[in-house]
């Protein structure tokens, strides 16, 4: 079974308008509610690709209840921990030519709730997959990802970490199955701007030497690069299409890669499905749907 953890889920209120002016009354042309958070995005896309999974994390209040019910209606299994105070955050995504985001803070997570999450993770079995994605709230200790991977060490559980900077570096000694920085984030780890494939590959290899088994680097319009645990480098561009949505494309790539790996146990196939899935989200108003993913997969 695949499990995803989202420490700070959200209701994403997406509004579309022809223009947006700060300080003025703006009226929408359309609006919709989406289920947000990087781990939840991974769960949603996995479900669309036919991969059963369980969404874990923390919810609070009536907004948390709405998110939980919404996920269940889409067929995603949930096992959230309910917090005694606060509200699951609401993020406002304004699409008016350019994209503007207003992200909520989210509820505080007490130590007892974190211990409850640890107890749930202790029940994972050999062969399960755990996805940790995104930043962590200020109420949690900085080493929470590290503590989770330490608890899972030696249990034959595949771990996927999509995080940045110190949060990512701290988990490398625990040999995560997959990490997925983008090119800018990868460069930040080494204090430089990466300008070519050779530089990206060199930095990815350094992360692999520090413990990461597979390093998948997303490069926006330049495609993606995978350095797999056998030492092979896989490079893909992007199919032709109009980018209309940047939210969740990286999460979709992670979901597609996992779906491809679980089906084929082949890194090249996993990379292609990951690239097609990330592109499908970038070319859509929402997250990738299976039909579009399969159409784009034929272009690689």
Report on the architecture of this protein.
The protein has 300 residues and is of the alpha/beta class. The chain has one domain: 3-Layer(aba) Sandwich (UDP-N-acetylmuramoyl-L-alanine:D-glutamate ligase), CATH 3.40.1190.20. Helix content is 36%, strand content 23%. It contains ten helices and 14 strands. Strands 1, 4, 5, 6, 9, 10, 11, 12, 13 and 14 form a ten-stranded mixed β-sheet that branches. It has a four-stranded mixed β-sheet with strand order 3-2-7-8. Strand 9 (129-133), helix 4 (144-152) and strand 10 form a beta-alpha-beta unit. The chain starts with a strand and ends with a helix.
Tell me about the largest β-sheet.
10 strands, mixed
Structurally, the number of domains stands at 1
Strand content: 15-25%
Low-confidence stretches: none
Return the CATH class: Alpha Beta
CATH hierarchy: architecture: 3-Layer(aba) Sandwich
CATH homologous superfamily? Ribokinase
Nearest-integer average pLDDT = 94
């Amino acid at each position: 079974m695949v499990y995803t953890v989202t420490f700070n889920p959200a209701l994403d209120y997406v509004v579309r308008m022809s223009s947006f002016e700060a300080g003025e009354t703006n009226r929408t042309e359309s609006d919709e509610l989406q289920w947000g958070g990087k781990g939840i995005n991974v769960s949603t896309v996995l479900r669309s690709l036919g991969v059963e999974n369980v969404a874990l994390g923390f919810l609070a209040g009536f907004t948390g209840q709405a998110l939980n019910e919404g996920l269940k209606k889409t067929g995603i299994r949930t096992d959230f921990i309910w917090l005694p105070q606060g509200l699951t955050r609401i993020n406002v995504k304004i699409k008016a030519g350019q994209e503007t985001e207003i992200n909520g803070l989210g509820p505080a997570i007490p130590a007892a709730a974190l211990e409850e999450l640890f107890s749930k993770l202790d029940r994972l079995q050999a062969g399960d997959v755990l996805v940790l994605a995104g930043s962590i709230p200020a109420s949690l200790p900085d080493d929470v990802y590290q503590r989770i991977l330490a608890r899972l060490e030696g249990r034959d559980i595949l771990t996927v970490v999509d995080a940045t900077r110190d949060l990512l570096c701290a988990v490398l000694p625990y040999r995560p199955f997959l990490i997925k920085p983008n090119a800018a984030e990868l460069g930040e780890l080494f204090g430089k701007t990466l300008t070519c494939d050779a530089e990206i590959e060199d930095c990815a290899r350094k992360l692999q030497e520090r413990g990461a088994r597979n390093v998948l680097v997303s490069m926006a319009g330049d495609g993606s690069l995978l350095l797999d645990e056998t030492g092979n480098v896989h490079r893909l561009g992007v199919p032709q299409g109009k980018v209309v949505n940047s939210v969740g494309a990286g999460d979709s790539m992670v979901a597609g890669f996992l779906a491809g790996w679980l089906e084929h146990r082949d890194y090249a196939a996993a990379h292609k499905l990951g690239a097609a899935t990330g592109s499908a989200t970038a070319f859509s108003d929402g997250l990738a749907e299976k039909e579009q993913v399969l159409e784009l997969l034929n272009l690689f």
